[in-house]
Amino acid sequence: MKNLKIFIILVACNYAAQSFAQAKSEVPVIVEQPQKSVVKNLLYVAPNDIYDKVDKYPEYAGGHSAMEAFFKKNLKKGSKIGRVIAVFVIERDGSVTNVDIVRSFSDSAKSEALRVIKLMPKWKPGFNDGKIVRTRCAIPISFQKLAKESVN
């Protein structure tokens, strides 16, 4: 019972303090209603968004066969045979950035793949909803295929 009386007194004091503070306030508070947007349903593409799925994917200048020729020309022959998977971003201007090797059979193959991907010329960028966007791409690099062809 004693706790109930204390609780009632605290609630009454709190209520009185709030009403006193409101009555003493001389500065009027203006609350603005949120304005409705003039432009509706516009797709805003942030400059740093990276898309995994797009309407038109980036293309290597000259196509897939030109990309294979680029790798044949620039990859150094190694004694090990295997495959490396590289992931990178094609920027709006077609440049290759954010290169990462997600799977590799050796450290030397990983470093060689990184070196060659950074040498790549600019690509044709990807498009989504008619706008040029940054696009994430993944490519496999087969050291087996390149090593066999370079021996001949």
Radius of gyration: 31 Å
Tell me, rounded to a whole number, the average pLDDT. Answer: 77
Helix run count = 4
- Measured between the Cα atoms of the first and last residue, the distance is 98 Å
Major sheet summary line: 5 strands, mixed
Order of helices and strands: HEHEEHEEH
Description of the molecule:
The protein is of the alpha+beta class. The chain has a domain at 50-151: TolA/TonB C-terminal domain. The chain has four helices and five strands. Strands 1, 2, 3, 4 and 5 form a five-stranded mixed β-sheet that branches. Strand 4 (126-128) and strand 5 (131-142) form a beta hairpin. The radius of gyration is 31 Å and the shape is elongated. Keywords: Signal. Residues 1-23 form the signal peptide.
Summarize the structure.
InterPro entries: TonB-dependent_transducer, TonB_C. By secondary structure, the chain is α+β, with helices and mostly antiparallel strands. It contains 4 helices and 5 strands.
